[in-house]
UniProtKB/TrEMBL annotation:
It comes from Amphiprion ocellaris. SUPFAM superfamilies: Bcl-2 inhibitors of programmed cell death. PROSITE patterns: BCL2_FAMILY (PS50062). SMART domains: BCL. One of its GO terms (biological process) is regulation of apoptotic process. This is Bcl-2 Bcl-2 homology region 1-3 domain-containing protein.
Length: 201
């Protein structure tokens, strides 16, 4: 059952999540360099949706950090601002790279993370108007290519366990003590989300 059955909207959550990831990436940029993103994104309607978006945002940052060391992704992100072809074509190449092995919760998280990095790269390249393009393209890609898959896989609420596993795999190079603390933290997040979700039904 997708999140829509419990009063939460997978579409609203995904759209708000994309916006949040981009805003988080741009938080240290002077506000005059960033165009307003509010009119382009749907507002969350419940406190439960806000909690899900915030928890997913944390997990996306952890999962997305795996991309930082991937030279192909970094080249694609760097090429968005000044590469050959239209920015849309370059964005499409990035999405093709992210989903070259199919749609998974982890790949969706990586796309949202990369969208944030692309938005930052546009501001750094003095193309702030392109931040809105990145947001709109990511939201459109989400709605047209990922939303159906998300609903078919039980909605965002079912992403927590897979994203928690991906997060733990990312931090596996930490010491065993740090590893244990991170497992406890992520397990607590997932369990708390599940309990909250069940009580709101």
């Amino acid at each position: 059952m997708a999140s829509e059955g419990n009063g939460m909207s997978d579409e609203r959550i995904g759209t708000a999540l994309i916006k949040q990831v981009i805003e988080e990436e741009l938080k240290d940029v002077p506000s005059e360099d960033v165009p307003p993103l509010t009119p382009l994104a749907v507002q969350l309607k419940t406190e439960q949706e806000e909690k899900v978006v915030n928890q997913l945002g944390i997990m996306i940052r952890i999962v997305g950090d795996k991309v930082k060391d991937d030279k192909e992704f970094q080249d694609a992100i760097d090429g968005m601002a000044c590469g050959p072809g239209s920015k849309w074509d370059r964005f499409k190449k990035v999405t093709d790279k992210v989903f070259e092995h199919g749609i998974t919760w982890e790949n969706i998280a990586v796309l949202f993370y990369v969208a944030g990095k692309l938005a930052l790269k546009m501001v750094e390249a003095h193309l702030p108007q392109s931040v809105r393009d990145v947001l709109m393209w990511t939201v459109d890609f989400f709605r047209n290519n990922l939303l159906g898959w998300i609903r078919d896989h039980g909605g965002w609420i079912n992403s927590f366990s897979d994203l928690a596993v991906a997060s733990v795999q990312h931090v596996s190079s930490f010491s065993s003590q740090s590893y244990g603390l991170i497992i406890i933290f992520i397990s607590g997040l997932a369990l708390g989300s599940f309990i909250t979700w069940r009580f709101t039904k």
